[in-house]
User: Fold Putative ABC transport system permease protein from Yimella lutea.
Amino acid sequence: MANTMRKVSLRNLGAHKLRLLLTVLSVVLGTSFVAGSLVFTGTVGKSFNDLFDNVAVGVDAQVTSKNESGGVSTDLGIPQSDVDRMQAQKRRLGVDKVQLGYTGTIVVADASGKAIQTGGAPSVGSNWVPNDQALDPNGVRIIEGRAPQAPNEIILNQDAVKKGKLKVGSRTKVVATNGNGEPMDVTVVGVTKLSTAASGYTEADFTTEGARRLFTDGEHVSTVSLSAVDGVSPEQLKQRVAQAFPDLKVTTGNEVRKQAKDSINQFLQIFNYILLSFAAIGLIVGTFIIYNTFSMIVAQRVKELALLRAIGAGRKQITRSVLFEAFVVGLTGSVIGFAIGIGLAAGLQALLSLTGSGLPEGALAISPVALVACLLVGVLVTMVSAYAPARRASKVAPVEAMRESQTDGAASLRLRTLIGAVLAVLGAAAIAIGATGKGGQAAGTVGLGAVLLIVAIIMGSPALSRPIIGALGAVTARPFGKLGNLARTNAVRNPRRTAATAFALTLGLMLVAVIGTLGSSFKSTIDAAVKSDITADVILIGSERGVPPASAAAVAAVDGVQDVVQLRNVPAKVEGKNAVGTAPSGDLGNVMKLKPVQGNFNLGGNDLLVSDKQATEPGWKLGSKVRLQTAFGTSTTATVTGVYQESPLSGPYLIGQDAYTALVPKQLQSSFVTLVNVEDGADVPPVQERIGEATKDYLTIKVQTPKEFANSQSGQIDQMLTVLYGMLGLSLLIAVLGIINTLALSVVERKREIGMLRAVGMLRKQVRRTIYLESILISIFGALLGMVIGVAIGWCLVRTFREWIPDIQAVIPWGTILFTLAMSAVAGVLAALWPAIRAARTKPLEAIVDL
Assistant:
């Protein structure tokens, strides 16, 4: 009997090829994203691992500084005195060779005088070590030209030479992003081939003396790499050096490689979670489509299953038969999804390569784990989705089933509606409570409330569908008369099915509303902060390392410039806690508005202005002496002379020039932004243009008005939103598929009814119009639920960010939400095109005599 039931299941699948295709496609969309995510991140991870396998080759121990403060780099390097002692103790320590490294981040100009774009990969300057002296003779090899011999000569890796359209003999500029940052004229005298390099990576090697002057203060060395004499293992060498120099960090070459791999794998893991979260959205939505599909399939096959029951098939056999069909569908969809996922990963890899992402390139890493995960997810989701319909089908008595075609829509919704109502109250209470708090715990409470509300929608939306669609239908029915009334009746005939079909759009629009609210709120906060805090006419920003300090003199010399104030980060411990403050290079009151609370705002050399938030916990007041200390050994005491209202641009504290000089060594001083005022009566655009011309040799400086600055910061948020919206398009695509699937199967289910309507005079175009209206009502119902829930969650979530952004205000992106709502109606029409055409082609007589 089991073999017979399997044959029946397979023949049933083969007899309904279109239905099979639609169901398989819903599985494919979800599993392909899972497969693509795992294959892509696996490929990038393997490429990085292969890359880092060639790092620190020949190095038995590497010595670096331990200095770090709150994740902010404060590394001056290894004191030269320690390096001298290390070299003097080579024999005692068991050291064979000592290789000194002087490194720093740089920007190199291309042939047109603009910065070579690295796509996010590092751009590094270092000292050239001849191959016969290097611990890894194959690490950097000169393939064209010669080694640098003068401080203004460099050798450049071949990828950077190609991207910058440079060659041996080319004159260009280099800007070191640590230290003063003065542009340096150099000549490319050689081209190198690196054993390790990611796409976009740039490495310029100088003479040892040139690199030492450029990247250090002359009293420190960036790294010291050691090789051991025969008979001394890397671990033994590490232990000996660590004991002799306890203030330095010592690692073996294997540990250097492992740390590099761990750091990138941690990033890839986070990236993978993001990708898989969107795959989960696709699977959740796909689950409802599969559930809907099997519910309708089982409803349409009630008589067939009843006949099987009548000839001896048991309930368990009926259930297993439907689950076997689900297994076949899930397995087929998963295999196809895995193949498409590989294509998606290859396409994403090619796209990132073309855009210069800075990621290493390599062959696709198709692991068994990705295949097994894809198969498990696809098969399990499909079988779980089909279980409830299969179980219901097995409970229908044969005699009852043979009377008339059954559907699952008549089942009582009272219990699930009650559960949904309780969960909705709990969810609403959770997000409301979260909105009254600040910080991560409050955000977590809002997140919990969001999950409860989503489950509440799943449970309660069938009951909501009738009143909401009824109200919507009352509006749409007027222009279409009886066709509108018929569409409204069809849309609420089976509330379970309607709710499951609409859920995809509910989830999609809810996420659009939440993400859009966060993005709009952040952008509004940036705009408000710039407008309220900055009075400067021109703003200069640079790369991730900031604006070179040397550029201030060039800007001040520009005709029409009145005030130039650089804002510089101060990474220090204040009262034992890490806090990054700001040190203005001039009178901050000329270029920014500080909202005074109390005290004097003339910032003297050793004065300290603190925000009201920063002053609260330690109980500071005017005249308090505050000790500031850095991770690299410098410290100073400053006096609190004023308290201001904290804003995103002012930071927790401001210190004077003398305190800044005492705390931050010259080599680590940098400006994260420069604010400029033009002279009274001068036009800003011409002065802005002259500033741009004066600073072009610094390569990374952008000269903007406050409005342009705000727009550029908002533009970064827009880029992130574009990516998120693009990925959310997956759920909307699956939503359209779900509507097509449901309407197509509904047309089959209502074949006799449509035939009767055609027999009594309904025209084909009227049949199509009815299907269109039904689809639009379902789409708008789902979108409305998502919009309401998403706006509530987004608004409450924004309020929790007041812990980090005190002035943030929730801004609802009504334009985006209403546009998406309108597009949902359009999607409803598009989804109904094919089912409507099929319905209109129904032949009355064939339909009437059909089962």
